[in-house]
Specification:
Distance between the termini: 35 Å
Structural class: alpha/beta
CATH topology of the largest domain: Rossmann fold
Shape: globular
Order of helices and strands: EHEHEHEHEEEEEEEHEHEHEHH
Radius of gyration: 20 Å
CATH superfamily of the largest domain: L-asparaginase, N-terminal domain
Length: 337
């Protein structure tokens, strides 16, 4: 139930939407590195962060209890609806989403494109389970709540808080399998820093988010988009398989500047001619895939991913395909969002 702010309780109100992940994970023994994701409810995570309720009045909702390798459209839809409801409440200052780190950047970018509120939405997770020595989850959650409650956190799109850093959803990527400093924003740098709830914001996002109040999620399933990973000696088989599986879009995680060899290129061109939208991204982890550089995208009917890595290019293409299948219109989306 919504709780009104009173003069006796001036704390801002923050809604916490929990999905599981390593931040809620537990080990069978501290001597073992293995753990199970999502074994602790959100109430336990809040209790493990002393002083967190001095930052804000918290409303917690357990949306899912999964590792983020299992994240997908059903939970994205639930998060979108719950976040929209919370953000529409005039008493709510912001929303925090606890999430596994494996696919956090994808969920963050998805929410960045569908949530049109100027209020902050902050994603947070952990690289060490809750039972680990020096677990990073409690401080990350503490800082995430502080960020969501901050009066200057709005109009920055969805943010990711981890390891005392604040990242823009569009820019951030997971870059290491186990280290707590896994998240990097290589193109445009950090959105800010947060240390024990002391926040220092830098610039605002350069690209747009949530066009026209946000991409609308259709009642039916989002269009299928597959990612095909390029490699030396690559043949046409994986691209052909995606077409047979009725993918409406294919993102190529290309070598170098979004490249693929001749046999795969022939299959991708055939897919494009058949109406499947082909986006060229890069497996390198950095840089820009520019249009009509090394490949004639105009002739082939391809889309260049610009700065987006393959997993984020897939998110934008899924949502873009709900509006158009025209490669040139879709290309403009990759320049804008």
């Amino acid at each position: 139930m919504a709780r009104s702010r009173t003069s006796a309780d001036p704390r801002p109100r923050v809604t916490v939407l929990a999905t599981g992940g390593t931040i809620a994970g537990g080990q069978p023994s501290q001597k073992r590195r293995g753990y199970t994701s999502a074994v602790f409810p959100i109430e336990s995570l809040i209790a493990a962060a002393p002083g967190i309720e001095s930052l804000a009045r918290l409303d917690a909702v357990q949306v899912a209890s999964i590792g983020s390798q299992d994240m997908g459209e059903p939970v994205w839809r639930a998060l979108t609806l719950l976040a929209q409801d919370a953000l529409a409440d005039k008493e709510v200052a912001g929303v925090v989403v606890t999430h596994g780190t494996d696919t956090m950047e994808e969920t963050a970018y998805f929410l960045n494109l569908v949530l049109g509120s100027p209020k902050p939405v902050v994603m947070v997770g952990a690289m060490r389970p809750a039972t680990a020595m020096s677990a990073d989850g409690p401080m990350n959650l503490y800082n995430a709540v502080a960020t969501a409650a901050h009066p200057d956190a709005g109009r920055r799109g969805v943010l990711v808080v981890a390891n005392d850093e604040i990242h823009f959803a569009r820019e951030v990527a997971k870059t290491n399998t186990t280290q707590i400093g896994t998240f990097k924003s290589t193109h445009r740098g950090l959105a800010g820093l947060v240390s024990s709830a002391r926040i220092h914001f830098y610039g605002r996002p350069v690209r747009l988010q949530a066009p026209g109040g946000g991409f609308k999620i259709p009642d039916s399933a989002l269009p299928r988009v597959d990612i095909v990973y390029a490699h030396a000696g690559m043949g046409p088989e994986m691209i052909d398989a995606a077409v047979r599986a009725e993918a409406r879009g294919i993102v190529i995680a290309g070598v170098g500047n979004g490249n693929i060899g001749a046999p795969a290129l022939e299959a991708a061109a055939a897919a494009s001619r058949s109406g499947v939208v082909v986006v060229r991204s890069s497996r390198t982890g950095g840089g820009i895939v520019e249009r009509n550089v090394e490949m004639d995208d105009d002739r082939l009917g391809f889309v260049a991913a610009d700065e987006l890595n393959p997993q984020k290019a897939r998110i934008l293409l899924m949502l873009g395909l709900t509006l158009t299948r025209d490669p040139l219109r879709l290309q403009e989306m990759f320049y804008v969002y």
